[in-house]
Amino acid sequence: MFQNQEEVNSYLEGTCDTEGVLLGVINRETYLKETMPHMLSGHYQGRVLSMISKMLAPKKILEIGTFTGYATLCLAEGLDKEGTLHTIDINEEQEERVLGYFERSEYASQIKYHIGDAINVIPTIEGEFDLVFIDADKKRNLIYYEMLIDRIPTGGVILLDNVLWKGKVFESNPDNQTRQVLELNATLAKDNRVEKLILPIRDGLFVLRKK
């Protein structure tokens, strides 16, 4: 339908709300300092995450895969005033810089930044999560999902990123990583515990609402 995806992305960004000053700084510095800056959620997807969070007004958010903190701060925009956002990342080399971003934000006191393997960290965080964003090691997405689905209340939402996998899910002879994404999507599509759909935003965002 669209011949020029960059043109579409530019139009979408031009018709949604602007990113805040700090988000702009994170965006620029990520592209200057990171070897894989495409992992950043970016302007338009960031506004989508913010909108979903604001509609839910969650008291507790869990993010798996902090990277440079861009999506974290977008999700935090919808937090209840007394809410908390737990974000987990395994890369301790980024910790100082990412903490610096969080400390410059208005949500500094509400963000709990965990460094470590998410499989080990998740059990140490008590309670239910109103909103979960999974954007980390794709091979473990089903593991994270099964660890968390029973900790989501009715009406709570789980978001999984990169479920269209750069369009590779449509290939006739998918590689091993793509087959894992296809398995994830097929499993989620059959899960009757949730209502679900994929938004074709950026690299594909699976949205699942707990029944």
Task: Describe, in short, the structure shown.
By secondary structure, this protein is an alpha/beta fold. It has eight helices and seven strands, in the order αααβαβαβαβαβαββ.
Would you write up a description of this structure?
The protein has 211 residues and is an alpha/beta fold. It has one domain (5-210): Vaccinia Virus protein VP39 (Rossmann fold), CATH 3.40.50.150. It has 8 helices and 7 strands. It has helices spanning 5-15, 21-33, 42-56, 70-76, 95-104, 118-121, 141-148, 176-189; strands at 60-64, 84-89, 111-115, 131-134, 157-161, 194-199, 205-210. A 7-stranded mixed sheet has the order 3-2-1-4-5-7-6, with helices on both faces. Helix 5 (95-104) links the parallel strand 2 and strand 3. Helix 3 (42-56) packs parallel to helix 4 (70-76). The chain is globular. 36% of the residues are buried. The model has no long low-confidence stretch (mean pLDDT 95). Keywords: Methyltransferase, S-adenosyl-L-methionine, Transferase. One of its GO terms (molecular function) is S-adenosylmethionine-dependent methyltransferase activity. It comes from Sphingobacterium yanglingense. Pfam families: Methyltransf_3. This is Putative O-methyltransferase YrrM.
Approximately how much helix is present in the residues? Answer: 25-40%
The gyration radius over C-alpha positions equals 17 Å
Name the average pLDDT.
Answer: 95
Named at the architecture level, the CATH assignment is 3-Layer(aba) Sandwich
What distance separates the N and C termini? 33 Å
How many domains make up the coordinates?
Answer: 1
CATH superfamily membership? Vaccinia Virus protein VP39
| Secondary structure category | alpha/beta
